[in-house]
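sorry for the late reply, my laptop died twice this morning and i had to redo everyting from scratch. anyway the thing you sent over, i finally got around to it. pasting the sequence first so we're on the same page, its 181 residues, then the predicted structure underneath. double check i copied it right bc i was rushing
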Amino acid sequence: MKSVTDSFVSLGHWPSAGGFGFNTDILATNPINLSVVLGVLIYFGKGVLNNLLDNRKQRILSTIRNSEELRRGAIEQLEKARARLRKVEMKANEYRVNGYSEIEREKENLINATCDILERLENYKNETLNFEQQRAINQVRQRVFQQALQGALGTLNSCLNSELHFRTISANIGILGAMEE
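ok and here's the structure:
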């Protein structure tokens, strides 16, 4: 026991302390100090440490249970979301197919309407050409008739003397008078 106390207290080491002092030799005092501190901690801290470890264990277990519940809830939500996604994809495909068919229908209607408009424009063009052609023919006829009439009048005027002219006018007036009656 004397060596143990010598390791703590050295009377001759610090002469100014008056016979009492601390041993500063770390290698000699450290294992003893550690064993004393550990013994005290184990003796007094065993219950506290057990309580702390039990509390920690209960918190870890409850956290694991909560995590499992959250995981199950997340899996359920994931399945619901996947089901909704499938429904939305089906609707999107349906809209896409309907949209394409609607676009094709509209395209066909537009082509048909354009063809109808072109046909009407073609008919209108043909009618306009026929009208203009008839008008040109009528103008030519009128000119030919006027020229023939002027030629006939010229021929009549040159061939008729005034007596023959007077008889022709009288005959024509008689015919017109008979027509009026």
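Confidence is low (pLDDT under 50) at residues 4-17.
thats about all i looked at so far, will dig more tmrw
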